[in-house]
Amino acid sequence: MPQLFADCLNEILEYLEGDMITLYSCLLVNHLWCEISVRIFWRNSWDYNYSNLRTLISCLPTESKEILSKNGIIISTSTSKPPMFNYASFCKGLSINRVDYKLKQILRNQQSVSLQNLNNNTYILAQELYKLFFSQGSLKILDLYLDRNFNFYPGAKECLKNLSELRCKPAVLSSEILYQLSQTCHNILSLDITVDRVISKELTDLISAQKNLKHLDIKCFCTEGGLKDVISSLTNPNKITKLCLYTTFHCFSLSFIIEFTNLQELELDFDYDECFKDFEKLQYAFFPKLQILKIEYGCPKYELLIKFLEKNGKNLRECYISYCKYNGDVNLLKLAITEFCPNLKKFFIRNRV
Fold first, then answer.
1. What is the Cα 100 distance to its own chain's centre?
2. 175 within 8 A of 202, measured Cβ to Cβ
3. Where are the alpha helices (DSSP H) in the chain?
4. Lowest CB count within 10 Å: 129, 152, 170, 295, which one?
5. At what angle do helices 31-41 and 2-14 cross, to 10 degrees?
6. Binning pLDDT at 50, 70 and 90, where does residue 1 land?
7. Interval 112-166: pLDDT, tens
């Protein structure tokens, strides 16, 4: 019976993920509540406040604290007592950019230093904190959207071997980091990348190493050849169930989407209608499992979109379309949605300014 209660409590507290105020209150109820809620409270670094990071800094090993001291970095902590838990081991989602930002705010509020010294101290402090994460944790989500290179810390291979979601901007990552990721991470299910330069072999190797990739999000600012390199490196495109594409200008053909035969969600976020000039290559494509369609900025001609919905509207549950009078008669589009999308639960037309 006690175990049943603990399992039920765990199920309930899971719904509080991200609600740091309520979770903190749960920590104070009793020992059982604390043991269960502490793992949720420390799960995702993007939910951390300054107090979380100060606690982690107090948990740094002596060697790291000596490095901080030698560089004149002194962070006040709320307590000198030893930690009750290995908090870093509970972290499953790490956002490098957000942690960097909050560490810089802690240093800015505590020390009066020049901008150059502030950036340098932030980097030093961050390195020691990431060493702690990678030596103690087992990450599921890693967000490497940052404006500087990143280091492959000791313990990273063990920490990242079960990574299921990666978000990154490969252009700012060294070839060595991409290589190490390709050698370590083989179970990524969701990949979010910004492609704005020549595609490196290390990046294509990282993509091709993923045998069970389900979600692919590409923000593309490169040439069509660059995107082709990304798509051609996919081992099993027919396993992709969610595809999101974003671009500010037309730089690639959309015909490759036809290969993603098991798509359940398709999102095309293009700034201009011109980006859809070859949507005619998709109008007769068939995606039997498609349930969500989002085209919220630029939009193809409605006559092409209507033909697409005729083939793929049967199982749609959600549809988000951008409205522009130059794309055709919106009333005809609405009639087509009524006829071809019998299972639609959400429909939204976004008026463009």
1. 17
2. yes
3. 2-14, 20-27, 31-41, 50-58, 62-70, 96-110, 115-136, 156-160, 175-184, 201-208, 224-232, 302-312, 330-340
4. 152
5. 30
6. very low
7. 666 778 888 889 999 999 999 999 889 999 998 876 667 788 888 899 999 999 9
